[in-house]
Description:
By secondary structure, the protein is mostly helical. The protein has 4 domains: 6-99, no CATH class; 109-224, HUPs (Rossmann fold, 3-Layer(aba) Sandwich), CATH 3.40.50.620; 227-281, no CATH class; 288-412, Isoleucyl-tRNA Synthetase, Domain 1. It is built from 15 helices and 10 strands. The two termini are 36 Å apart.
Amino acid sequence: YDVTREYYVNDGGAQVDTLARSTYLRYLQANGKEISFGPDSYQGNYLVDIGKKLKDKFGDRFVDKPEKDWLDTFREFSINEMLKLIKNDLLSLNVVMDQYVHEKSIVETARIEEAIDKLKEKGLIYWGVLEPPKGKTSENWEAREQMLLKSTVYGDDVDRPIKKSDGTWTYFAPDIAYHFDKVSRGYDELINVFGADHGGYVKRLTAVVDALSESKVSFVIKLIQLVNVISEDQVLKMSKRAGNFVLLREAIDAVGSDVTRFVMLMRKNDANLDFNFDKVREQSRENPVFYVQYAHARICSLLKRAEESGIDTSDQALLNFDGEHLREPEHIFFIRKLAEWPRIIEQATSHREPHRIIFYLIEVASGFHSFWSSGKEKDSLRILQGDNPEKTLAGLALARSTGIIINQGLKMMGVKPLREM
Length: 421
């Protein structure tokens, strides 16, 4: 597939003004001023460094100045600094974006108007008044005429507002324009990755893409559930506004990028994930990251020992093994597990569920460790058979096959396989 990885930067709404105002408070703090946060402020410590950078750049020029003097400057500076953090964290996890698209540029280049004109041509735009939302009463809801999209034609629950009665665009309008932009670029398939709290956008955006592409573009939204961070058996309570959260960078610094990637891919995207900082540091079978890597390292060590004893462990030599030496029930069971690998890849790809590969690697690692332990109790299952070179070759071929699969699977997940531990 020819794939474009694109990151959509939400820098066109009111929240970036809130970000700028929150950064201004940290700027005042860097200048020695006492500050107090409002109910809408972002209080995270990640803004402290940005405030210090603003002080280094502007000194006290904007201290006690009216908002109109500094808001645009602080907004742009804050967005750029936040993007640097995001890009650095993604690169640390080996996540490379091909391009970044800004909501602000979508709005400023009249893409909203182009998208609306396209929908008007299809007779999907009208002015009207929606029914009160569920739970609203006539006392706290006022009927206003708005520009609406006939999204119900394409399976949405209600028609969606695009422009308010005061002439300003709704939050949904730039989303329509962005998807119009993607459809216009000629992609056959669009895959959006959203947080679970955006589940309400699935039907309305599906309706938009169907309308703009005349149902010719495949559109999928993958909802990503929240991560529960656990430390010392306690789930950490998160609040972005209050500044109580764990940054991705903190996880990477604590356990490394490979472990972070592995853990993040251990659950289906729409299932909650527990990131247990204590467990992923354990060297036991209770830590699946360690368990899989240990299996790979154990196989590498085994092949190295065999080579040092004079056995040819090249792939060409191992291909000449005699399958008659792998007839034990334990052999057959494990070989069948290894034979599932091509099907696992196909399923993970077709369902867009990388966790299937992680689950399979854990099963393979568990099977190999069990197989290894059985060799201590049952001579016929020992891999290195000093008095039987043909049987040793067969055992090494099985171990090498296991190592290849674990190696391939980890690399597919962006995790470096360890040869030593």
